[in-house]
Amino acid sequence: MRTLENYVCGAWKRGEGTLRKLHNPTTGEQCAETGTGGVDMKAVMDHARHVGGPALREMTFSARAALLMNASKAIHAHREALIDLAVENGGNTRKDAKFDLDGATGTLAAYARFGETIGDTRVQFDGGGVQLGRTSRFWGEHVFVPREGVAVHINAFNFPAWGLAEKAAVAWLAGVPVVTKPATATATVAEAMVRILIDDGVVPEGALQLLSGSAGDLLDHMESQDILAFTGSAATGFMLRSHENLLRKSVRVNIEADSLNSAVLGPDVQPGSETWNLFLRDVVTEMTQKAGQKCTAVRRIFVPEAIADTVQEELCARLSDMAVGNPALREVRVSPLASAAQRDDVRAGVERLAAEADIVFGSTDTPEVVDADATAGYFVGPVLLRARDAASCSAVHEHEVFGPVATIVPVAGDAASAAAEVRKGDGSLVASVYSDDREFIGAMILGIGAWHGRLYLGSARVADQTLGSGAVLPASVHGGPGRAGGGEELGFERGMRLYQQRVALQGDRGILQRLFK
Amino acid sequence: MRTLENYVCGAWKRGEGTLRKLHNPTTGEQCAETGTGGVDMKAVMDHARHVGGPALREMTFSARAALLMNASKAIHAHREALIDLAVENGGNTRKDAKFDLDGATGTLAAYARFGETIGDTRVQFDGGGVQLGRTSRFWGEHVFVPREGVAVHINAFNFPAWGLAEKAAVAWLAGVPVVTKPATATATVAEAMVRILIDDGVVPEGALQLLSGSAGDLLDHMESQDILAFTGSAATGFMLRSHENLLRKSVRVNIEADSLNSAVLGPDVQPGSETWNLFLRDVVTEMTQKAGQKCTAVRRIFVPEAIADTVQEELCARLSDMAVGNPALREVRVSPLASAAQRDDVRAGVERLAAEADIVFGSTDTPEVVDADATAGYFVGPVLLRARDAASCSAVHEHEVFGPVATIVPVAGDAASAAAEVRKGDGSLVASVYSDDREFIGAMILGIGAWHGRLYLGSARVADQTLGSGAVLPASVHGGPGRAGGGEELGFERGMRLYQQRVALQGDRGILQRLFK
Predict the structure, then answer these.
(1) What is the CATH number of the domain that holds B360?
(2) Per-residue model confidence as pLDDT tens digits over A387-399
(3) Which of A39, A443, B97, B489 has a CA that sits 20 to 30 A from residue B75's CA?
(4) How many A-B residue pairs are in contact by the CB < 8 A criterion?
């Protein structure tokens, strides 16, 4: 059995005291143990602040971009071993593990290519300058400089590789050192990745530290230039955001939390059309990929009443093809959940939804599984529900069931009605709209845009190219308002703003325009 | 005596119950009374949300720009009457009152001109698009849409006109209705401005409501799409930011709080040079304008040790020309403070500073005043201090004395030493750097940039054009990290982001690029 370690203050350190057990979700057996007992969290923050930060700030964007590309390559070189770990400790299917890992290396590489376009400078200009005085001699510019603090990254259990890499890529490119804390339950993959990066000497010392367990009193040692980025539950997000030290010091906090993402089928979409097939394919992928343990997974499926029965039949047919079981097997499409607690939460959540929606596919019973002990592993099969009365359901819009579970909500076909229902989610990461009708699409963007960080517009012309609504791409921002936490990550330069200070410069145009060039 | 009213839910309403007294700072006499007792705060929020918001969102940027220009003109038309109110209730000199009022109308007009450049659309695109799929058919864009909530503006007592207008200009242009709450002590000017805007029919109903007193339980009625923007003390900012309802709902909160702004004199600047004179002129203006009651006022003056005596002599000589007294008189340059509480705070603050710095000009005693009763009014004369030992002073870097008070801190002449001292303020709104040495300027930007929202670079070539470091211009962002609250306002499009939702759009390039155009 493996004992995970922490990488802190330039050395690997095993946690002291009682360690936490990590399990193989397929068998329920313990596969590792970890802890952060004895780690001096203030020393961790100081090390990042005084060693990692200056080293990164000394580098230009081009140099940091090269760092990211090296990190991507180093991790990719160990892809097979990392996939094996993800299958064992994450319970991921090999395909799901690749989605996580290739997402990690792909995001690092994409940010590397983006960083290269900023070039051989340490200061980024923000838009154009502007005349401030009577003549253009007194001039204004805005620049972005790296915050002189530490990025603390607290990640979710579902994407141990991608979560670590996407947050680190952005912070590093901005010039800010990282203390990363994977979710303890699935920390093996993150620990292995950090080991690769440290062994390969890819990042400057102090730019990356790892806590393979509880963050202890880390938040008490955060200062005004630090940044906390969290992905996880709304309850934990609220706790972090309420932390007195963070509030007193104006520590920047970015949160990605619960999200009841919607898929909306336009009234123009005919059964059998390309857009119709894309819609069905995406919804089934979103329900079953990672066993539905994705913050971007579709939870609410809004379809015109007139066609709801047909949608339900088609989805049930497709879901019945999705085998649940041992994720190491090629034919298995739905993995176990990541932990016993998650399985129990999902079952309880389905019961809550069932109070106002009929289960039309699957159940909360122990499912039939391929090549595994269905009761020892953390299995829940896909469950599709259908709201009994769209006007009176609330749990469907408020309770995120973090598993292979979604609910069909029949609505009137017009954009305004659909938008009103979608907005009941009170802020989501993403909504997908399936339509080839430009008017409907435009009306939906205006109707639900303010409530989302991203809108995925599925249509016939893109059906053969998209990666699905759940894929979080480095070129598009990720995050949503309200219930989704109000955060914003990625989107190339946009995600870097969290780690930078925007500074207005006012002075002699001749000097300002030649600085840093 | 005037009784101020609230403008809520489409009607003027006088507060019920006990009203709060407002005073004339020059005489200490009561000049008005006000309160919000009996105002239904939930109804106020609902009115903004359901009446004002939709009306503003229906307008294009061009139409909202026209609204701002009309608001600017309407207020400007009543300039003289508003100045009289500011002298009476604010205790402002006429020059200080004009600074506030012309700042208000100027910011509205500048945002109007800026809004006109966005044009006849409701959706703003954010940068360029990007290819997401194998071909450019699957395409990504980002747009900004108005948040479907209410902007609650809680303003400071020092700029009742400008504070109301600069926040409202940005929110309205973004398409978001405003509930504005001036500081109660100086609410007469804000109340008069809202009366002008309502009487003239400049803003659509519901786009502007006024609370001329306590906000009551308003925060309990804020929702996930709402925005709170606050300017005032760090203590109140912390209280607002800690409010459970705001934390739970991811309500966006923007705070401008305490700021120990620095002026840094470069080692290259020779006594008698243009840059030297600009430095002295700016520092004296910052200390005395609005009696130092400006969030951007200079509190810490860093000068090379070798020249500290000369700087001190020059500043003392100039300060001795600044008459304190009845602000209605042309020859008076330093007004009373806004309230008895402010006067007492400033006196206590100077005592605190005096524990580690020598008072080299003025005192906390009742000053000699022109044409006023020095003990009845809230007078404090300018006080200049000089730190005894830069290495061991702390209050100078931590305690904002909100009056005509600043401290000289002698430092070694190099940029690194000066930057290290400036950073002890733990985040400020603005620092001003006086130098004609490009290397020194560049080193200071990199050395203190991350700790500031704005750097004002005073040099010989701009000495005849600048408005001083304390002027907050609509083209430059205003706000600072850490102690300064972490907020960001103005800067044209930059300030609008607080009121908008950025949405990533993914779909058919052909559709995306023709939407909203």
Answers:
(1) 3.40.309.10
(2) 998 888 899 999 9
(3) B489
(4) 252
